[in-house]
Amino acid sequence: MKVLLVDDHPLILTALKAMIENLVPGVVVNAVSSAKEARFTLRVQQDHDLMLLDLQLGDANGFELLTDVRRTDPELSVVVLSSSDRASDVIQAIDLGAMGFLPKRMTTEDLADALRLVMAGGIYVPTMTVNPMRDADEPPPAPVAAHATGGAGNGDSLPSFEELGVTPRQADVLMLLLQGKSNKDIARRLGLSVETIKDHVQAVLRALGVSSRTQAVLAVGQMTQQRRGRN
Fold first, then answer.
1. Can you name the residues that pair with 82 across neighbouring β-strands?
2. Cβ(160)–Cβ(153) under 8 Å?
3. Which of 6, 141, 170, 229 minimizes the number of CB atoms within 10 Å of its CB?
4. Is residue 209 within 8 Å of residue 219, measured between CB atoms?
5. In this structure, are residues 125 and 100 in contact, taking their beta carbons and an 8 Å threshold?
6. In sequence order, what DSSP letters do the residues of 64-95 get, joined into one string?
7. Integer Cα distance of 120 and 100 in angstroms
8. Half-sphere exposure in the Cβ direction for 51 (13 Å, CA)
9. Alpha helices in 73-193 (DSSP H)
10. Helix extents (H) in the chain
11. In what order do the strands lie in the sheet with 77-82?
């Protein structure tokens, strides 16, 4: 696995690099301290699996860099690191395509657990209340990585469809929804009509108690944390 770590604080950069290398044997961590370095690294090394991005960079706004990366490299998974844990920042990051949001104020143990989760392909967001914000028919956010194992979860993946309260087919739709696929793309992949997919999406959102795709990502992330806490 290859990780790009972007943080303009030297001590945090060094500490996070060491933590990640200890968590996953054989992982390669490229640590850079600016948006300029991050863009250059991604341009010359196009085989990164995960980007850990600080929002407060000296030469750029982290949200701007996140937007650029999702546009130029949509297959790269991005997780935001921030000293903020405001709900508005979490929602904006997820809405822009981040697959997780890790507050820096987390304890070392909790941060390590969160890093293990996202490096295994799961979704991590801090505990927060998910309120209706948008229409359920809104365009999907940029792709968000998620484990999909036939609708069933494992120790570090998403909850099973039984835990989510959806049918196996709705779980298939949810996995593709979390990856940022449009209703048309989901319909083509599953061999169903767009109208049928719309019905499934509405059923998934009702089961999760949310009203938009972004909120679905947040809700599933929090359910994943709760599930891991019980294991």
1. 103
2. yes
3. 229
4. yes
5. yes
6. HHHHHHHHH-TTSEEEEEES---HHHHHHHHH
7. 12
8. 32
9. 87-95, 108-119, 161-164, 168-178, 183-190
10. 10-23, 35-44, 62-72, 87-95, 108-119, 161-164, 168-178, 183-190, 194-208, 213-230
11. 28-32, 2-6, 50-54, 77-82, 100-103
Phi, psi of 137 (to 5 degrees): -90, 10
Residue-range domains of the chain with CATH: 2-119 (3.40.50.2300), 130-231 (1.10.10.10)
Residue located via tokens 């089961």: 207
- Residue 177 tokens, joined: 């929804």
Alpha-carbon gap, residue 87 to 190, rounded angstroms: 34
Instruction: For residue 160, give Cα distances in angstroms to 80, 122, 172, 197.
Output: 25, 13, 11, 20
Q: How do beta strands 60-61 and 56-57 pair?
A: antiparallel
pLDDT for residue 211: 81
* Tokens matching residue 55: 């929002």
Can you read off the two tokens belonging to residue 11? 């001590």
Token pair 């301290």 in the structure block, residue: 33
Name the pTM for this structure. 0.66
Kindly report, residue by residue over 136-189, the tens digit of the pLDDT: 344 444 333 333 333 323 334 556 667 777 888 988 888 887 766 778 889 999
Q: Which of 92, 10, 6 is nearest to 53 (CA)?
A: 6
Q: What is the β-pairing status of strands 50-54 and 56-57?
A: unpaired
The pLDDT value recorded for residue 179 is 66
- Tokens encoding 111: 């941060």
Q: What rounded mean pLDDT belongs to the chain?
A: 79
Tell me the residue type at 218: L
